Amino acid sequence: MRTPFQHGPGGVLSQHETQRNKPRRIAAMIARQAARMRKVFAPLFALALLPATPAAAQDTVRLRGDYVVTLLGLTVGRGGWDVRIGADHYIVTGNGRSAGLAALISSGHGEASADGLMRAGTPVPRRYDYHSTTTQKYDEIHFLLQDGAVNDLRIDPPQGRNRKRVALEARHKEGVVDPIGGVLMPSTAGIGPQSCARSLNVFDGRMRYDLKFTFLRMEQVKTDTGYAGPVAVCALRFTPIAGHVPDRPAIKYLTELTTMEAWLAPVAGTTLVVPWRVVIPTPFGTAVMQAERFQAVAK
């Protein structure tokens, strides 16, 4: 009679051998799920995929952020971003990569950059570029924006054909922000409940979706390097609009999820807030992106 244990090259594993290998099997499972999570939840972890740019003479504030992404408390990714804000412009560049267990199963890295104008303290996106490569695929996205309208859109590879996909129409590319410029959010009254009172109309090159923020509570945080102080914790809801396949499990899951959180911190020297921490419960465990360095310097 067969035992319930796995057969190996040398025959049936003993219970002792199975128990001994259990941590390794669990680690491999977490790594596979982390690699899958990076693909599924990439739009909501845009910040973690943000190299530094030369300083512009007009820059008045520079924010440097280093983030770690964990799943079930284990590191699966790292990223950093460099934000330069002037009186009339902003420039954001960054990069991210697989780390820890996830890198053992599926290595990957990404780079993103965006820039735009500053009008009365509010970012107005003008350009977005994104590139990512994994062991299985690559993705390149480029587009320009003018007063919230997308033009010169280029994506590679092209969007896959699927009869169930909600078509992206011209109206879905108007009145939108890119995934990076969108999370440079004005909060003129400082950090507080009002920081969460917003909804972002996001276009990432392949999909149009809304991100709605709702105030939950205030917290006190301390970064390893940089910011220490209050953050506004917001509930975060994802609503797909176009470019998606409605019956895909990941889309259905995100749409129904009511327990995502975004912790917003102020950028010193500006009236902007940006995510300091993002929490997304997943079918594989809780995914967290959190700043290890969050340092803004006014010039």
Task: Report the sheet-strand fraction.
Answer: over 45%
- Put simply, the count of helices is 3
Strand count, sense and closure of the main sheet? 15 strands, mixed
Give the oligomeric state: single chain
Q: How many whole angstroms does the radius of gyration measure? A: 21 Å
Mean pLDDT: 83
Q: Give the termini separation.
A: 75 Å
How many distinct beta strands?
17
The secondary structure category is mainly beta
Helical residues, percent = 10-25%
User: Which stretches of 5+ consecutive residues score pLDDT under 50?
Assistant: 1-19, 47-57
Q: Give the overall silhouette.
A: globular
How many individual domains? 1
Give the helices and strands as they follow along the chain. Answer: EEHEEEHEEEEEEEEEHEEE
